[in-house]
Every structure is written in C-alpha cells, then in structure tokens.
Amino acid sequence: MADAKLENVRKTFNDGQVVAVDDIDLHIEEGEFLVLVGPSGCGKSTTLRCIAGLEVPDSGTITFGGHDVTELPPKDRAISMVFQNYALYPSMTVYENMAFGLKMRGADKEKIDEQVRWAADIMEISDLLDRYPNQLSGGQQQRVALGRAIVRDPALFLLDEPLSNLDAKLRAVMRTEIQELQQELDVASVFVTHDQEEAMSMGDRIAVMNAGRIEQIAPPEEIYHDPNSLFVADFIGSPSINFFEMTFDGSSITGDEFGVDLPEAVAEELRDGLPGEDVVVGIRPGNINVTDAGTGLVDIEVEVVEPMGDTKILYFDLDGQRVNAVVQSTERVQEGDTIGLEIEWPNVHFFRPDGPKVVKWMHATEGTVPGVPGQPDDEVRADGSPSGAREEGN
C-alpha cells in the first residue's frame, strides 16, 4: 500500500491563460477512497491526470509513498486507471483485454493467467472471458474495465467518471461493487465525478473543487452538515439549500419576510467575521418544518408538491425567491394550501456575501442547553425555536 501527496500543484493550458489546477494540496491516505467532485471544468479530471502522469504539472510535486513521481511517465507509477469510456480493444476477447497490460510488461504466461482469473473471479466475469466487447452489456464492459485495472495490483487506483455511461439503476449497483472492490483491495483510490450523489455515497472523504481550487476536504457528513463556503453548501445537497440575503445589526438579523434576535455567542461570531452588515443565511430544506397557518414564523402558500416516495418536496415563493422544504410523505399538504413555516435555527449557516462561512448557529452556542443545541434556556420557545424569532411586519 502507498499514500499519495500533491503539494502546490499547478497546471495551466494555452500558455498559462487557462488555469486548470490552481496550486492545490491534497493527501490521499493509504487505503482511502477519496472522491474529487465538482462541476464541469473545475479541474478534477486534470488533477487526476496529473496524478496518473498523463499531464505534467507546471509546478509543485507529486509523491507516492514518499517517492517523487512528478516527472515519471504513467507506466512507472504503479497506477491503474479506469475511464468513462471503457477503452476495451474490440478485436480482443475479455481475457486478452485483461491480460494485455501484463503482457506488455513482460509478465510470464503463468503469472498473467493467475492474475486475470483472480481479477475475473472478483468481478464475477469468469464466464465472459471468451467473449468480445460487442457481446457484452454496458455493466459487463465496466466490470471488464475494472478487472483489467486491478490485474496489475496497483499502488493507486484512479477512476475518471467510470459510471457516466450507465443508466441510473446500473450506476447504483456499480457504486456498491466499486466500493466493495476497493475495500477488498485496500488500495488508495481517487474517484472523479460531477455527481454529488455518487460522491456522498462512495467517498471516505470528499474534495469539492471549484475553478481549479479545492474548496473543502472532509467526510461526506461534514461536507453536508458543515459546508465551509456558499459554493460547497449550494453544490452539495439535493434539493438545494435555501439562501436568504439578510442584514445584521450587531445583535439580530433581518430579511424581507422574517428576522431573529441572535444568541450573543452567534452575534459575536458575526461581528468578528463579517466585513459589513450583509450576511447570507443558509437553511437546508430538511431544516424547515411545516406547521399550521398562523402558528409559524411565516405563513406561505404551497406552489408545488413533488412526491419523492418517503418524502415530499414543497416549493414556495417567498417575496420572489423560490424556497423549498422536505417533509414526510405522510404530511397532509397540497398545492394551494397556506401553511406556516418554522426554522430549525441551530442548523442555520451564516456566510459572508463573498463566499466563506462565518459560523453555524449550533457551533457558536454548542453545549449551552442539554438537548437543545444552539441557544440558552431563556431564548428557547416551546417549539424549539428562539424566542426572538419574528415575522417581519408582525
């Protein structure tokens, strides 16, 4: 096993005019499954290609197990790579495709046969070894591509959007199979995807990339519950987080439709962290609760109800802004109903308008009240929201 480190890696194109990877630092630990996720053009595939040796960085260093491999060609890096297109040779059988890399390296026939059959057994394709790629389904071709990658017994396993060509049901199956394969091999792996659902379900850690930079690296739960920027909060999570542009006066926040007096611990963080009075408040759809009209923070009409099985997504228009909330499917809410909304204030995030997060409510006041994270006893109403919460105009 080996780890991999990228230090101050930078890669540009078009004589430096296009910055694909912008001085990133990244450590893939031994046996870790790390996911690089971000929108198209964010630099995730270029980062992977630099790790693989398919691109040489303009500056910075890449090490495997403490050895500098920055200038080494791919064949000398002990890596295996799986691409979006399976890159199988159509004129070769499955066996020949899987054996090709070992054959080119001069491995003896006995070793080749042993490795190919070992990999085929792991990928459950032993009965396909005599077939040609055009005789295989998409899922079978993907298994062959994965099998071909692992026959080399790599020190680092690289996967560049390998599931993009599969339908949704097969993607879900292959996600599980890739995770099980990685755990069995216990090899450091980097998986590139633009699909945040894949990232959240597969990675030990996730590196969220944007414009050539890594915005945040953390386990999936932390990325979702404690995003460190507007971009990460917006990119990760479905349905998307709700953002409200509000004004902070030193002790409370006020928006067009509602406001709230803040616990001193939260207000102090905002006074220290905000460059001015503007603040962006982020609230996950699952942290907005439905109540009877006239009993919540805001009364609002339900515009759209989107059934999702165990849950429903409710969509509203709040002063021209689309707002969504997630409720249980048993909640009796229909389009056109007027309902009240309550906010789980401890789970609210506060961001600077230029992107960085200042604080999460519960982190500023954690531990002040057992069982009610986020606020002192005298600031908690019976429904768990702060006593200072108010609907503007009331």
Automatic annotation (TrEMBL):
Gene Ontology MF, one: ABC-type transporter activity
UniProt EC number: 7.5.2.13
A GO CC term attached to the entry: ATP-binding cassette (ABC) transporter complex, substrate-binding subunit-containing
Disordered: annotated span: 367-394
Source taxon at top rank: Archaea
Entry keyword Lipoprotein: no
Catalytic reactions on record: D-xylose(out) + ATP + H2O = D-xylose(in) + ADP + phosphate + H(+); L-arabinose(out) + ATP + H2O = L-arabinose(in) + ADP + phosphate + H(+)
Catalytic class of the enzyme: translocase
Keyword Membrane: no
GO BP, one annotated term: carbohydrate transport
UniProt-listed Gene3D superfamilies: 2.40.50.100, Nucleic acid-binding proteins (2.40.50.140), P-loop containing nucleotide triphosphate hydrolases (3.40.50.300)
Keywords per UniProt: ATP-binding, Nucleotide-binding, Plasmid, Transport
Family according to the record: Belongs to the ABC transporter superfamily. Carbohydrate uptake transporter-1 (CUT1) (TC 3.A.1.1) family.
Function statement: Part of the ABC transporter complex XacGHIJK involved in the uptake of xylose and arabinose. Responsible for energy coupling to the transport system.
Subunit structure: The complex is composed of two ATP-binding proteins (XacJ and XacK), two transmembrane proteins (XacH and XacI) and a solute-binding protein (XacG).
Identification of the protein by name: ABC-type D-xylose/L-arabinose transporter
Protein's organism: Halorussus limi
